[in-house]
């Protein structure tokens, strides 16, 4: 068969689903390529991670016998078949991201956060989904996409696999700071981490003690390798958003503002995101009230 692939979200981040489908079909002897409107295909896959807010699907496919659309951006749907899910991705599909492996060691999350689709899509328990060898073959860097690795029973064994790889590991979707223990931090200390991501999403939860405990247990001293996602525009006031940002900075963590449904966010929240996430500005302008666009607004949104 001739297979066409469409990455609806663009190519700024590798689409893991398409990489697995490519590898699977190539192993079956099929011809696989990026879809073009000029071609003719037996089967075309369209994959979309993000919703209409961030990613518009304007691609019409009229040159395929069969079209399959999948991904979170299209809403609930079937998962990849097991034989595809457990296929090592075809990393050659995205040569602009060399020497990097992408994958999940676990699936699911028990937190049931209202802004997140993971619990509904993958389940309300964090369960072992794969060993590292399934998607890593000696690449210099590993980007993990797990939603809640530390909630998985037996996650220590998975951390040991990461440590043994000696690759640079990026826990890209975040670790749950509330699940930090002396034992799993001791294992994290053995992992060559490019970055450890956490999240402080709930403005009503005081997580300062957890972050302080991590600082005491961890060997990571560079704040740029300790990034914390701060969710805004979701049941929080500007004062609560700024408090989390300022508190994290004082504790030696690098905040990164995430805006839920950004088009609906007030100007003050969008200014906060620009101030925090542009690290050159954030490190030179210490107080948000001194940030020039905010001064022009009179200090409020």
Q: What share of residues is helical?
A: 25-40%
Structural class: alpha/beta
CATH topology annotation of the largest domain: pyruvate-formate lyase- activating enzyme
Strand content: 15-25%
In DSSP terms, counting alpha (H) and pi (I) runs of 4 or more, how many helices? Answer: 10
- What's the main sheet like? 6 strands, parallel
Our measurement of the CA-to-CA distance between the termini, rounded to an integer number of angstroms, reads: 56 Å
Q: What does the average pLDDT come to?
A: 93
CATH A-level architecture of the largest domain: Alpha-Beta Horseshoe
Radius of gyration: 21 Å
Instruction: Give the strand order, joined by hyphens, for the main sheet.
Output: 5-8-9-10-11-12
Overall CATH class of the largest domain: Alpha Beta
Element-by-element helix/strand order:
EHEEEHEEHEEHEHEHEHEHHH
Q: Which quaternary structure do these chains form?
A: single chain
Number of domains: 2
Number of strands: 12
Question: What is the overall shape?
Answer: globular
Uncertain regions spanning at least 5 consecutive residues: none
Walk me through this protein's architecture:
- The protein is α/β, with parallel strands linked by helices.
- It has 2 domains: 1-84; 85-296, Alpha-Beta Horseshoe (pyruvate-formate lyase- activating enzyme).
- Helices cover 28% and strands 18% of the residues.
- The chain is built from 10 helices and 12 strands.
- The strands form 3 sheets. Strands 5-8-9-10-11-12 form a 6-stranded parallel β-sheet.
- Helix 4 packs parallel to helix 5.
- The longest helix is centred in the last third of the chain and has 13 residues, at 238-250.
- The chain starts with a strand and ends in a 5-residue tail after the last helix.
- The relative contact order is 0.08.
């Amino acid at each position: 068969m001739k297979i066409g692939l469409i990455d609806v979200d663009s190519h700024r981040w590798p689409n893991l689903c398409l990489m697995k489908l490519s590898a699977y079909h190539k192993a079956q002897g099929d011809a696989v390529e990026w879809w073009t409107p000029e071609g003719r295909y037996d089967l075309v896959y369209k994959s979309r991670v993000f919703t209409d807010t961030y990613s518009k699907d304007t691609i019409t496919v009229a040159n395929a016998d069969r079209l399959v659309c999948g991904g979170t951006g299209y809403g609930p749907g079937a998962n990849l078949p097991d034989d595809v899910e457990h296929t090592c991705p075809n990393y050659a599909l995205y040569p602009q991201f060399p020497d990097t492996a992408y994958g999940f060691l676990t699936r699911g999350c028990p937190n049931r956060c209202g802004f997140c689709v993971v619990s509904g899509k993958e389940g309300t328990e964090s369960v072992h989904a794969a060993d590292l060898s399934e998607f890593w073959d000696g690449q210099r860097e590993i980007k993990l996409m797990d939603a809640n690795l530390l909630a998985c029973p037996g996650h220590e064994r998975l951390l040991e696999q990461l440590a043994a790889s000696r690759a640079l590991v990026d826990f890209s979707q975040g670790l749950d700071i509330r699940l930090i223990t002396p034992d799993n931090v001791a294992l994290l200390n053995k992992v060559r981490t490019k970055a450890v991501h956490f999240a402080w999403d709930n403005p009503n939860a005081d997580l300062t003690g957890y972050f302080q405990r991590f600082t005491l247990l961890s060997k990571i001293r560079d704040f740029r390798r300790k990034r914390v996602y701060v969710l805004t525009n979701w049941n929080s006031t500007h004062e609560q958003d700024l408090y989390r940002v300022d508190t994290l900075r004082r504790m030696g963590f690098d905040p990164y503002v995430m805006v839920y449904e950004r088009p609906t966010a007030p100007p003050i929240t969008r200014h906060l995101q620009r101030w925090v996430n542009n690290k050159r500005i954030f490190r030179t302008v210490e107080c948000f009230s001194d940030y020039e666009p905010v001064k022009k607004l009179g200090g409020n949104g």
